[in-house]
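ingest -> validate -> predict -> emit
validate: passed (alphabet ok, no gaps, 279 aa)
predict: started
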Amino acid sequence: MRRKVSSWHYLLVVLLFASVCWGRSPQAATPPAGYVLAWSDEFNGASGSLPDSSKWIMETGGAGWGNNELETYTNRTQNVHVQDGKLVIVASKEKYTGTDGIARDYTSARMKTAGLFEQKYGRFEARIKIPQGQGMWPAFWMMGNNIEKAGWPTGGEIDVMENIGKEPAIVHGSMHGPGYSGAKGLSAAYNLPTGKFADDFHIFAVEWEAAAVRFYVDGNLYETRTPADLPAGQAWVFDHSFFILLNVAVGGDWPGSPDSTTVFPQPMLVDYVRVYRKK
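emit:
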């Protein structure tokens, strides 16, 4: 049975991000040189509402998601909503049993554009202020639109940005395919020169072409991958349309579990997601 979250919990979440979320003027979608805007979500819906259902599908459940994650993803506004021109995904510590009957001690949200928007090649970017703390695992990523038929990792995965809470000044950009997935994926890290990523918004992007994928943080190129990087005999599976995902996982094989230092609730704020295609 679903547990109702009290109004003070929601107020606490609002206060956590209000100083960042309120008063910021939106940044116009100016295409990078050589690109035109193909799709975007500026999250300008009514404050307190769920994300635009014509652009996003909410994924729900608490079965670990292949990573031994500890949360249940929900479609409740307590875990995901639009507020003052930002998307807010909130990871909370609460006992919750979803419709799958799985009882968990944490809730969060996960959303995707599968079936609504998918694109092959182009620039995919988002401006995000990530959460922080041991056990937190925010991500902005993409999966091949043939995932249901081909399975993972054959369908392909591009992780535009992943962070694990114990590395507050580091994000990872990765690619996964057959023979190069999980810990053996193509991956590199970007280290923030000062401070930690949870202090402010940052722009995470990839530029994806037929035979190259380039990873950026705040305009800084830090990783380029080509078919030459693959293990011998393996296939470059980044030749079809991908869809976008946003989520905040709690716990899992990579970040480990939250501990006594982890503060909840933890919001991830997304100013926009924009996708460009070459002219």
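Confidence is low (pLDDT under 50) at residues 1-26.
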